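Hi R.,

Here's the input for the zinc ion complex you asked about:
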Amino acid sequence: MRVAQLGTGEPEIAVVAGIHGDEPCGVRAVERLLDDRPSVNRPIKLIVVNEAALERRIRFVDEDLNRAFPGDPAATTHEGKLAHDLVSELEGCLAFSMHSTQSHAEPFAIVNGVTETARDIVPQLPVTAMVETSNFAEGRLFSAIDTIEVECGLQGSETAAENADRLTRAFLTAVDALPGDTVRRDLPVYRLTDVIRKDQADTYEVFVDNFTEVEPGAPFAAADGEKQIAEESFYPVLMSSNGYQDVFGYSAEKIDVLETQAVAD
Ligand SMILES: [Zn+2]
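And here is the predicted structure with zinc ion in place:
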């Protein structure tokens, strides 16, 4: 784990990259900040987490780090120990953690609850949606540390790296660490309700777009040509044919739209 700092004093904000070793976009954003060394109004901690997995360009060495929190110093896995070390390092910080996916090119935010912090900061980020995943929080970083996660785009793409840079700067501006103003936008909020499982098969297909409502009766995915039909309407989130081993993604409900006027006062 690599830990660096911009500014002096005890940081209360942290930028976290490389929780997953096959998602290099956030690391690029952190390296760029370290190269540019912008002058900051508040100290910022910068962390590149899973260096062993990043070197090998694999998601994890022993187990998924974002299912391993809070971790344990006596854990037998690399990620079990790393989770504990990261939590110690982030104690007292609001963390901004960057990820990328195989399912959706447009950046969106993931939070563990629609808290005051989330309502204030996320509409100032260049994201198209906020997803509340408290039903599926177990083992994730934000179950242990106050965290805003962002999905920056498609894994390994140049666009995801550019998005990671823009998202980080918007976050740091929103928390008054960098000077300047952010743009607030209306933001739809979704809550994950279910996992969409997939059966063992040779080929997988997904017929729907993330964040676009699926009507009851519509086929939304298939395993070896066997179609899955929506029983009730839902919004697909993190859906992709081959992104995860045993799930297509998640179903969600739309719970709110945060409007700029409502959060401005
Ligand atoms: Zn990730």
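One thing worth noting: The first strand starts at residue 2 and ends at 6.

Cheers,
M.
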